[in-house]
Amino acid sequence: MITRHSPLAHSAYHDLLSSLRDEVAAEIRGTPTRIDRNGRVYWYDTYRVGSDVKKTYIGEDSEELRRRMQRIEALRDDRDNRRRNRARLVRLLRAERFLGVDAATGSLLHAFASAGVFRLGGTVVGTQAFRLYEGELGVRFTLDQTAQTNDVDIASFEQLSIALDDSVSAPLEQVLKDFSFEPAPTLDPGKTWRWKQTRSETLVEFLTPSFAEEEGLRPLPALGVHAQSLHHLNYLLAEPMPAAVTYRDGVLVQIPRPERFAIHKIIVADRRRDGPDSLKSIKDRLQAEFLVDVLAADRPDDLREALEDALARGKRWRDRIAATLKRSPSLQAALGDMMR
Known about the structure:
Strand content: 15-25%
Number of strands: 12
Pfam family, one: DUF6788
Protein name: Nucleotidyltransferase
Low-confidence stretches: none
Domain Nucleotidyltransferase-like: 105-310
Order of helices and strands: HEEEHHHHEHEHHEEEEEHEEHHHHH
Mean pLDDT: 91
Oligomer: single chain
Domain DUF6788: 19-67
Number of helices: 14
Shape: globular
Distance between the termini: 26 Å
InterPro entries: DUF6788, NTP_transf_8, NTP_transf_8_dom
């Protein structure tokens, strides 16, 4: 049974998200400059600091971004009113029983956003991303579906991190230190990809796709950290989307598309079904079942396209998807016909 938020709550969420995206243009200090790299178009904020010319990455080219940049002056003039309106929208969403995030997670995501993590390609993955589909899809989660985790997983493409030629405004090591995180030991000295909070069990992990064998730790220059390489992340991170975190007056982050998240969870549920991660495999399957139910009802074409993309990536991908479907009558009923 899918339980939905009210139309008012769904509209308020998208108003919050739109306002946060307006801030991207309002924060431009100088002249938007278009740069072509490897067949893709990126926009940078070009401005002077003394005799030096600085460039700060704004975002990848899109019609929506171009429209906002055409309204820079108006967006700058209205920043205070938008901030107050966002705070009102967050209060409304809390009154509508949005799950949101706890204060500790919200403040950490806010610090990451302020440093430029999501602007520079960082994407929230894992359970924190799953919880943020509440606003995008306009649905309520049950407690079982959203077993709370304070862990924060951030993933990004290594090549994108290199290509952007920009970096976070504050070293993430210092940002994490301010929240009482310490680097977790690794086999590669000086290459930290995981931090543990000293006052809790919370972990922050950085991940990146592996395109061959899982290649250990890889650098993410834009973020100034290393990341653990994992299979199938390239599929998950394709065409990420913005999301609003209901903390303070809202925080703009980036998450995978829900249909890709669902299919990715089906794949990793099979990868983790045996051994020490078997409990995570169950959670993976439950999250996939919930999202597939919603998407099959609301966005069947998106779901079909995401599944077809995964099935086209080879026999091992098809085998893992089929194995999870065999263990889930719900997924079999929703996706079985698409597998043929």
